[in-house]
Amino acid sequence: MAYELKEMQGSLFKNSKKTTELQPDYTGKIKVNGVELQLSAWVAKTKAGETYLNIKAKEANTGSIDNFGAKSGTDLPF
Q1: Of 2, 23, 53, 55, which residue is least crowded by CB atoms under 10 Å?
Q2: What is the value of pTM for the model shown?
Q3: For residue range 48-57, what is the model confidence (pLDDT) as tens digits?
């Protein structure tokens, strides 16, 4: 049984595939108002030297993309 995100909860995991500084240190998902969001987080430091997480969120890609760029499971206009 796959893990199902609960409303207003999420998780971040260390990005074991990180190869450049542009890639996030942590990735994960959160569910807000029924929408699953993909999280990316970078460890950063303030000018005073305090460590914090810089976090970005975007809508998660829940469907796969076919060879023509259309998400599978979506209605096509023809």
Answers
A1: 2
A2: 0.73
A3: 999 999 999 9
How many separate helices (H) and strands (E) can be counted in the chain? Answer: 0, 4
| 27 CB-near residues (< 8 Å, 6+ apart) | 12, 13, 15, 38, 39, 40, 41
* CA geometry: angle 51, 9, 73, nearest 5 deg: 115
Dump pLDDT digits (tens) for 8-44: 999 999 999 999 999 999 999 999 999 999 999 999 9
**Residue located via tokens 């595939």:** 17
CA–CA separation, 65 vs 15, rounded Å?
A: 23
Q: Residue 67 has which token pair?
A: 């060879």
Tokens 């942590």 locate to: 26
